[in-house]
Predict the 3D structure of the following.
Amino acid sequence: MLYEGKAKQIFETEDPNEIIIHYKDDATAGNGAKKGTIENKGILNNKITVMIYRHLEEQGIKTHLIRMLNERDQLCRKVTILPLEVIVRNVIAGSAAARFQLKEGTEIRCPIIELCWKDDALGDPLINDFHAIALNLATREELDEIYAMTEKINTILIAMWKEMGIRLIDFKIEFGKTAEGELLLADEISPDTCRLWDAKTNEKLDKDRFRRDLGQIEEAYQEIFSRLEKKEA
Ligand code: UDP
């Protein structure tokens, strides 16, 4: 094992350019303040991420995913993750609702892209491009490429979820660089990292059910998986 995070473990393989990502059922919220397990979350998030990444690859987005190995493991290209959380907001919710004193669900004129410095000890503080460049987290060129890819990913994902009767409220993505210097979408895209609301009822089908003790957590993740499966069929 190379690294263990809150929801995943990373293992090395015989090939120095490839790693295995293992998805756990552990869930945390509020930077580790709330801890628990969501039964089968690891299996569902592994499968959900693979389906979404395949769809993004088909639309020309370069990702670290090579292939799914089994229910909980996926083989990926080894990258160095940039210490940035790239957050996209299509509708106001979560920390943006609190920060701007706006009601959750407030519509905005265009998507907002935010950067957070991925640092647990600091609580992932919100930063801007100047911070990222000055603190050596990314170069101007890397940020330009990240923003271009992020806008494209958002457009693809809004359409993909819409087809499944789901509103993509917001989400977080991460990027990594290969040894050759190629920038790739990395990490997961799942109900752990997106806010997904049912288009008809606005029911929350994501990790907010865990964060806010709304119950029916596993069912919500299962519902997202089922709708993706139906779309693929
Ligand atoms: N998010 C994430 N990991 C984080 C922080 C946020 O995946 O460490 C996702 C979260 O699920 C949501 C979006 O990024 O879809 C925006 O989160 P927000 O800033 O509102 O923070 P939160 O309310 O989750 O603390």
User: Anything to note?
Assistant: The pocket of uridine-5'-diphosphate is lined by residues 85, 87, 94-96, 124, 170-172, 193-195, 207 (CB under 6 Å).
